[in-house]
Design goal:
The strands form two sheets. The protein has a 15-stranded mixed β-sheet, with helices on both faces. Strands 6-7-8 form a three-stranded antiparallel β-sheet, with no helix packed on it. The chain folds into two domains: about 5-245, Putative sugar-binding, N-terminal domain (Rossmann fold), CATH 3.40.50; about 265-445, Four-carbon acid sugar kinase, nucleotide binding domain (Molybdenum Cofactor Biosythetic Enzyme, Chain A, 3-Layer(aba) Sandwich), CATH 3.40.980. The chain has 16 helices and 18 strands. Helix 3 packs parallel to helix 4, helix 8 packs across helix 9 and helix 12 runs parallel beside helix 14 (about 355-375). The protein starts with a strand and ends in a 6-residue tail after the last helix. By secondary structure, the protein is of the alpha/beta class. The radius of gyration is 21 Å and the shape is globular.
């Protein structure tokens, strides 16, 4: 058995998206929530691709420098030719939180690489990079990132720049450059060698369609002995899989299937995106019980937090008893008064928004833990990238394997851990992802459409 790739994700939903791409391409892949225990290593010893999910996207540069090296060391010892630092396909980052520049610098301090190719676009997810600028699709159309109705007003990392290397230049002093669509059509090997020789360390690569994606994968794989670290979204894996099929490393995989439908699931959401709001509203009209969680009270004091958790949990349990699927949410979109209330409470308490989000994520995880334990439901959804990481921790889940696809980046998975939730079927969904009926799709077992 030879390993093809390892990856370190900056959040749980994005890390699971890489798992999905590899798994549904027929590659034996597993995602861990930290350096795995010996029992977990033995359980998945034959995996060809191994990842570790973190909450780095919601963390400070100091946190990254303190926490990431040990994870990189573990992955480096697995001796895969490529180590991928996984970032969000909408480039969520800022100098003070989720700093990609510091993260890449930290990875390079452990694992040497002549340069770091960066592939952010993933055309399958309607993420397109053209001449260095990123575009992202929504339910209503495709927008340049700095004009995107969601990402331009993201509550933590609003994107004011679509030129990704200009955005990244605010986070690192490493020299950056670009391999654009014209370079990919001409001689990208010559271009990347020239950039490396001139001292460029971060090299962004355009990707717009199947051809450019395949060219990016070929470029990365053919230079894997010198480009041992890569960064980007699951676009990295989409690109590599296309090339691996072309050269016969893997065969085209059969079409993935759905899991069995269930009558009820449990779900929690810490996302404030408009897309998630539409999903919550649709679910409320289709067999889900919508249960608001008082996030502002949850950060007021430990006692207030426990009361808010208890109130939401009891409402969810009551809903489950009536045959509904409980969906607990902290806000229904960016204009929900709960968002203003939370910001006011953050200001009053002196907490940072990142700390508040951390506490809310843990609280939602505790609600899901209690609901699953008392109802014995065996399928769940966590909506929100940061919320997913905190929820996995509370549930005591250490590993994921992909089970059934939905929209790209939000597969139904089987989770494993030394906890009562071992074997739980769970989907981790980023806030700005998914169809209106996503929660019901998971209830139905996922599967291609």
């Amino acid at each position: 058995m030879s390993r093809l790739i390892t990856w370190l994700g900056d959040d749980f939903t994005g890390s699971a998206a890489v798992l999905e791409v590899l798994s549904f391409a027929g590659i034996d892949a597993v995602l861990f929530s930290g350096v795995p225990s010996e029992a977990m290593r033995n359980r998945f010893s034959n995996a060809q691709a191994i990842g570790i999910a973190t909450t780095a996207r919601a963390q400070t540069p100091e946190w990254m420098r303190g926490h990431l090296p040990a994870l990189v060391q573990f992955l480096d010892q697995l001796k895969a030719p490529i180590l991928h630092y996984k970032i969000c396909s909408t480039f969520d980052s800022a100098p003070h939180v989720g700093n990609m520049g510091v993260a890449i610098e930290t990875v390079l301090s452990v694992r040497a690489s002549d340069a770091v190719p960066i592939v952010t676009a993933a055309p399958q997810m309607r993420r397109y990079q053209v001449f260095g600028n990123l575009f992202a699709g929504t339910l209503d159309g495709t927008y340049r990132l700095d004009r995107h109705p969601i990402m331009s007003r993201h509550p933590v990392t609003p994107m004011t720049e679509a030129d990704l290397m200009a955005h990244l230049a605010l986070q690192t002093k490493l020299q950056t450059d670009l391999i654009d669509l014209e370079d990919l059509k001409s001689d990208p090997n010559k271009k990347i060698s020239k950039l490396i020789m001139s001292g460029k360390k971060l090299i962004s690569i355009d990707s717009f369609d199947e051809l450019s994606e395949k060219k990016a994968g070929q470029l990365i794989w053919e230079h894997r002995n010198r480009l041992r670290v890569v960064a980007g979204s699951q676009g990295i894996e989409y690109a590599l899989v296309r090339h691996w099929i072309d050269i016969g490393i893997i065969a085209p995989a059969p079409r993935p299937m759905s899991a069995e439908p269930v009558s009820q699931i449990a779900a929690v959401s810490g996302s404030v995106s408009e897309i998630t709001a539409e999903q919550i509203q649709w679910s409320g009209q289709n067999g889900f019980a919508l249960i608001p969680f008082d996030a502002a009270s949850a950060i007021a004091s430990p006692e207030a937090c426990e009361r808010a958790i208890h109130t939401a949990t009891e409402a969810a349990l009551l809903a489950a008893q009536t045959g509904a699927s409980p969906l607990v949410f902290s806000a229904c979109g960016p204009d929900d008064p709960a968002v203003t209330k939370l910001r006011q409470k953050v200001s009053q308490t002196g907490l940072t928004l990142e700390t508040a989000n951390h506490q809310i994520g843990l609280a939602l995880g505790q609600i899901l833990d209690r609901v699953l334990t008392k109802t014995r439901l065996r399928r769940a959804v966590i909506s929100g990238g940061d919320t997913s990481g905190h929820g996995m921790t509370v549930l005591g889940l250490e590993a994921l394997r992909a089970l059934a696809p939905t929209i790209p980046g939000a597969a139904l998975c089987t989770a494993y851990g030394d906890s009562p939730h071992d074997g739980l079927q769970i989907a981790l969904k980023g806030g700005q992802m998914g169809s209106r009926d996503f929660f019901d799709w998971i209830r139905a077992g996922g599967g291609p459409r």
